[in-house]
Amino acid sequence: MTLEGKIAVVTGAGSGIGRATAEALAAAGATVVCADINPDTGEEAAAALRAAGGKGEYLPVDLTDAASVEAFGQAVAARHGAVDVLVNGAGWGKTHPFWEGTPELWERVIALNFVGPMRLAKALLPAMIARGSGKIVNVASDAGRVGSLGETVYAGAKGGLIAFTKSLARETARYGINVNCVCPGPTETPLLFAVPEGHLEAFKKAIPFRRFGKPSEVADAVVFFASDQSSYITGQVLSVSGGLTMAG
Question: What are the pLDDT digits (tens) for 173-205?
Fold first, then answer.
């Protein structure tokens, strides 16, 4: 798969799945805009892409802040015009019983995992529509497909992102834009390792492959949806979970 000459925006590029996705897109030839709230990890990720012979730059964005998303969209447009690929890769949650959550925590989880990607899509879509092409890949979660113990609000936000993917795919197909969704299962990221050890062991035993996914394995699915090899695929949800969720 080649993405030579393509401009790709990846949120959450400073770590985990976002960083692995940025690396995979750059390796395929894309110029990658590494978007992250943390300037240290974001700059480091972009520098690593360049050190490996790829093309990368860092731009800050706080997906929980509407003004930040708008400013980010304007900065991307000023530097690159219409982007070819948008990967909504940033995500965050906290494991606890639903009734122990607070409205403030719920709002943050929903803003980052659902509202932020919607805002960013809205910011970058007009230029894609005007050009008549583009790829949007939303990184949701199998929690949003089948539910997840201790992640109720996170699962709800990711479930919303899945439904948003399907509906947006219907709306934008006439403009030559593909919108798809990758749903990771338990993957070796900082988010996973924040889960209590007992939960981690239970997760691993439930996975047919008996191991957690690697960020690079999720990134491979994202790159497929970002490439021309998925040109006739839209509105689809691909689970990358080692067989943990074979139905649902």
Answer: 999 999 999 999 888 877 766 666 767 777 788
CA dihedral 182, 15, 125, 138 (to 10 degrees): 10
- First and final CA of the chain: distance in angstroms? 30
Please tell me the distance from the alpha carbon of residue 204 to that of residue 60, in angstroms, as a whole number.
35
Catalytic residue check, 154: yes
- Residue 212: is its pLDDT beyond 70? yes
What's the CA gap between 215 and 23, in Å, rounded? 11
Catalytic-role residue among 58, 154, 175, 232: 154
* Domain locations in the chain as residue ranges: 7-240
Q: Rounded to whole angstroms, how far apart are CA atoms 94 and 84?
A: 32
Distance CA 103, CA 36 (A): 24
Architecture of domain 7-240: 3-Layer(aba) Sandwich (3.40)
Provide the percentage of residues in the chain whose pLDDT is more than 90.
77
Secondary structure E strands in 27-176: 31-36, 55-60, 85-88, 134-139
